[in-house]
Specification:
The chain has about 350 residues and is an alpha/beta fold. It contains seven helices and 24 strands.
């Protein structure tokens, strides 16, 4: 609901990625209302913006689910609780009000008021780590892509992927079924990805399904307005050119906390420190869930973020209703219909 041009709710969730969306569900079970703020124009975070067609294998109950499909399912799951959304606006400032609530103002001046804030901003604001190739900028979106948004874009094309982590391995495996020719280049012989993925890469390379070049890196790009080749520097074979239609360097993302770094929270190496009892931050009433937080043993997995959101909601209830006793009911007993709330 609106009051003096402020959006009022129980929990302001900063970040509408999968963990932020699932927090709406867990909050809804406790009849807590949520409003989400995201700088992106739609829900889903990285799953929607970077790899909507990438299969995810570690979501319970789904042997495999496309990232975009997971977002759709999460949106359907929270629909009964009628959350509010502010898209295309980055949360810029937070201010404690006299009544104990938090005022969150976006970069466009939209104001949100709630007793609890969940920071679910994933990696924060981020940008791809680009290889140090002098002319790479002139080929961006002209054969050089830092994200694989739609695998069919590479259908029947020659593709070179560079990298040795999970993202590079996963996309090399997936695109080997789509591309006409797939080459994976890594500067070392050892990979940083999951052992199962490394095994699959070796199998595909042995079968001739992909070309695997290790101890090498791309040092130059060729083309006249459109990429047509990469210059490879090999440790033993020297320099040579490999013709290709696409070069996809997957060296991860450089996370930046952005305005969150100025909110007075305890920060460690670019992540928000939390108490694993309930994933609360150093500031009462503010919680951090998902990839944005850090604690001993932290794993940056979606399913871990789901767990964090669940426990955070239990403590959030006490901030919203300090005089009420929390009585959690299993959905298998009561059903969603009896638990759903509304934004207004």
């Amino acid at each position: 609901m609106e009051n003096q041009n402020k959006i009022e709710t129980d929990i302001i969730i900063i970040g509408a990625g999968p963990v932020g969306l699932f927090a709406v569900f867990e909050a809804g079970l406790l009849k807590l209302r949520c409003h989400l703020i995201d700088a992106l124009p739609q829900a889903g975070g990285q799953l929607t913006e970077i790899y909507p067609k990438k299969p995810i294998y570690d979501i319970p109950g789904y042997p495999s689910v496309l990232a975009g499909e997971l977002v759709q399912n999460l949106m359907k799951q929270i629909e009964p609780f009628k959350p509010g959304f502010t898209f295309g606006e980055r949360a810029e400032t937070i201010e404690k009000q006299e009544d104990g609530r938090w005022l969150v103002t976006t970069i466009k001046g939209t104001k949100h008021l709630a007793p609890v804030i969940f920071i679910a901003g994933g990696l924060g604001s981020f940008e791809p780590r680009k290889p140090p190739i002098d002319n790479i900028a002139q080929f961006e979106d002209k054969g050089v892509e830092y994200f694989v948004r739609n695998p069919e874009f590479y259908h029947n094309s020659r593709v070179v992927i560079a990298g040795g982590g999970d993202s590079a391995l996963d996309w090399a495996i997936y695109l080997s079924k789509v591309a006409k020719e797939l080459t994976l280049i890594h500067r070392r012989t050892e990979f940083r990805g999951a052992p199962d993925s490394v095994e699959k890469i070796q199998y595909l390379a042995n079968k001739g399904k992909i070309k695997l070049i290790t101890n090498a890196q791309v040092v130059g790009l060729n083309g006249n307005g459109q990429l047509n080749g990469v210059v490879i520097q090999h440790d033993t074979e020297g320099e040579f050119v490999l013709e290709t239609d696409h070069f996809v360097p997957l060296f991860g993302l450089t996370p930046k906390l952005g305005p969150i770094a100025d909110w007075g929270l305890a920060i460690d190496k670019g992540a928000v420190e939390v108490n694993t009892f309930d994933y609360s931050t150093s500031v009462p009433g503010i919680f951090a869930i998902g990839d944005i937080n850090t604690y001993p043993g932290k794993l940056k997995l979606i399913l871990c973020g789901f767990h964090e959101a669940t426990l955070a909601c239990q403590s959030a209830f006490k901030f919203v209703h300090p005089d009420k006793k929390l009585s959690f009911k299993y959905t298998t007993v009561t059903g969603i219909e009896g638990l759903s709330g509304s934004e207004g």
